[in-house]
Amino acid sequence: MRIGGPVVPMAATAIDHIPDESACPGGCRYEPKWDGFRALAIVNEDGGVRLWSRRLKPFNDAFPEVVLAVFDVLPPGTVVDGEIVRWGRDGRLDFAALQRRHVAGRRRRDLALAEPCHYVVFDVLEAGGTDYRPRPLAERREALERLLADVPDASLVVLCPQMRDAGEARLWFEILPAQGIEGLVVKAATGRYREGKRGWWKVKHRTTTEAVIGGVTGSIDAPQTLILGRYEQSGRLRVVARSAPLTPATAQAVAALLRPAGDEHPWPAELPAGWAGGMPGAEKPTPYVRVVPDLVAEISVDAATEHGRWRHSVRYLRIRAELRPTDVPKGLDLE
Length: 335
Prior knowledge:
Layout: E1 11-15, E2 28-33, E3 37-43, E4 49-53, H1 64-73, E5 78-85, H2 95-103, H3 108-114, E6 118-127, E7 130-131, H4 137-147, E8 157-159, H5 166-175, E9 183-188, E10 198-204, E11 207-218, E12 223-231, E13 237-242, H6 248-255, E14 270-271, E15 286-287, E16 289-301, E17 305-306, E18 309-310, E19 315-319
Parallel strand pairs: 1-10, 6-8
Antiparallel strand pairs: 2-9, 3-4, 3-5, 5-6, 6-7, 9-10, 11-12, 11-16, 12-13, 14-15, 16-19, 17-18
Family: Belongs to the ATP-dependent DNA ligase family.
Catalytic activity: ATP + (deoxyribonucleotide)n-3'-hydroxyl + 5'-phospho-(deoxyribonucleotide)m = (deoxyribonucleotide)n+m + AMP + diphosphate
Domain ATP-dependent DNA ligase family profile: 119-236
């Protein structure tokens, strides 16, 4: 084998539109952008399987059922790239279930039986003694389809769908968020697999909505990001998002409207880890400044949610001075 150890996977650059087929050398290929854990699977010449994260951390202990599925369907001397995902009972991708697997420790094997994950494969780097990394995507795709042609429908290893028509891809783009899929990845048919390099595009489905400004990081005079909330049906104001960093001009305009809050504010003085973005337990508590929660902000959000919050940073668009906090949708409703 040419690939004996972990590989830094190829990456994508975010763009705001779906390009036409002519935008890519040799034409564009469109694939779903899965909301899961990126993983490369290496099956060595003895049939041993290793799963590696995009940060080169081993995944074998966290996803033993995926290891077994890869062993069952991929021949020795194979390296593929894909995404580990978990479909919930409602048919949507469940990222929170993946997080449970990642930190479950001794419960991982029990969860592997109760909440099995799938491995969606979208590229092949090596197979049958051939190094496919220098080959164009179109050729790699043909090799991947041959490799997975006889995989049974019940397998946890799944071939990623791929489209060539931009019109059909745009239809996909509108439909897929209902399944918890974030958007599309766009690739050039003639493109090589470039380890650790950005050569693909990703387009996330975004929706405009509103939230209440309940706090800021930085200072009230120079806010860096916004901590945003929404009311639950019970009447409790809950943290649901954190904005991307504000531009200096935006920060100055928002600061002029903020008022410091006292101890009657419904949120704690320091936000626990995971409340304002990021994986719970993977970061320190977030220091911030509480403000009177009477300002409504218009924001742009993507489809990724967990634990009743938007997982990724949202984009601040403007203040909606004509709206009251009670006018904002409840929970994560977008209507």
